[in-house]
């Protein structure tokens, strides 16, 4: 009866549990888990351990046992996050991230002038892959650049179809007699529009003026259109300095005209000069003329070394300065002793 009473009343369980401690459901950390919902376990029960989704097991063992004193055996099992592959760089854009393991985040941005196609972010998933592929950054598109009346457009790259990409530039040219007013270069902007196009307007210059001691190729008394030209030349023996022609500019004014420069005379009475590589007595130098920017040399004496040397001087618009070292010889010396002159003795 006593045994039956104990069985019916459940005191037998109390007697048994007083002899053996049970283990409570283990508290698992570091992303470790176990199956089922059982709360208490008898000594000797083994419990399999696993890692939560997105984590990989390392070390071990991967099970624990309920001991007779109601404690679970220890384990060195660790669950580390799964790794996703390192993301590739994107063209015309940037990406930012700190880690590449489970639940890490990548953010994508495109450079100015580019539009993103695809997701702007991705998350490392439990299976070790990113939630979405890397996006593309495609250029913003503009239409064709506006063409001004009486003008044309030249692109810096080949354009096919009716669209142009961000950053493309267009050079504007006006057909004469029209001149360009405004920025000669337009650009396809990040907003998908072109910067302001210039205008082509008629430009004229007043009748050109002649130059002193010269003449023009065109004496018409009329207005000249943009980019029309007039050529100039000089009367002999003057030399033209500057451009041979003047151009009607977009400002309505002529470009700088040339000028006619005068020749020079070698102002010595006695002596020998060096001109175009030849030594010439001054009385034989006929005509006594050195053209603008030409060079002639006179001879000076180095008295200490008793030798002669040539000193150059240049004709500048009718002025030719004789070097200060030149000493014109006396009449007797020049006539009777020409071999003693600086030009004739040994040269320094």
From TrEMBL:
GO terms for cellular component: extracellular region. InterPro entries: Compl-Cell_Adhes-Reg, Sushi/SCR/CCP_sf, Sushi_2, Sushi_SCR_CCP_dom. Pfam families: Sushi, Sushi_2. Disulfide bonds join 23-66, 110-137, 205-248. Keywords: Disulfide bond, Glycoprotein, Heparin-binding, Repeat, Secreted, Signal, Sushi. Residues 1-18 form the signal peptide. It is found in: Secreted. GO terms for molecular function: heparin binding. This is Beta-2-glycoprotein 1.
């Amino acid at each position: 009866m006593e045994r039956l009473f104990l069985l019916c009343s459940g005191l037998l369980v109390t007697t048994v549990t007083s002899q053996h401690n049970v283990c409570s459901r283990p508290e698992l950390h570091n992303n470790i888990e176990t199956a089922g919902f059982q709360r208490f376990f008898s000594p000797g029960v083994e419990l399999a351990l696993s890692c939560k989704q997105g984590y990989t097991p390392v070390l071990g063992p991967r099970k624990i046992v309920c001991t007779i004193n109601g404690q679970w055996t220890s384990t060195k099992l660790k669950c580390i996050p799964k790794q996703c592959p390192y993301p590739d760089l994107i063209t015309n854009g940037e990406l930012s991230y700190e880690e590449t393991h489970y639940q890490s985040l990548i953010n994508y941005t495109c450079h100015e002038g580019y539009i993103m196609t695809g997701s702007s972010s991705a998350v490392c998933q439990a299976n070790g892959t990113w939630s979405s592929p890397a996006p593309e950054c495609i250029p913003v598109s503009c239409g064709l650049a506006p063409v001004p009346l009486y003008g044309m457009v030249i692109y810096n790259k080949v354009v096919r179809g009716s669209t142009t990409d961000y950053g493309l530039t267009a050079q504007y040219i006006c057909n004469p007699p029209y001149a360009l007013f405004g920025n000669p270069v337009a650009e396809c902007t990040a907003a998908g529009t072109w910067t302001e196009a210039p205008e082509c307007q008629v430009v004229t210059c007043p009748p050109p003026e002649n130059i002193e001691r010269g003449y023009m190729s065109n004496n018409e008394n009329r207005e000249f259109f943009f980019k029309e030209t007039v050529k100039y030349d000089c009367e002999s023996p003057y030399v033209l300095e500057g451009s041979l022609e003047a151009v009607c500019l977009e400002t309505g004014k002529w470009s700088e005209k040339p000028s006619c420069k005068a020749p020079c005379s070698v102002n010595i009475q006695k002596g020998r000069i060096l001109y175009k590589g030849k030594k010439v007595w001054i009385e034989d130098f006929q005509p006594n003329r050195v053209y603008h920017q030409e060079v002639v040399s006179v001879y000076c004496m180095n008295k200490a070394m008793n030798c002669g040397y040539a000193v150059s001087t240049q004709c500048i618009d009718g002025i030719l300065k004789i070097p200060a070292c030149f000493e014109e010889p006396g009449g007797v010396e020049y006539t009777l002793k020409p071999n003693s002159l600086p030009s004739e003795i040994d040269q320094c």
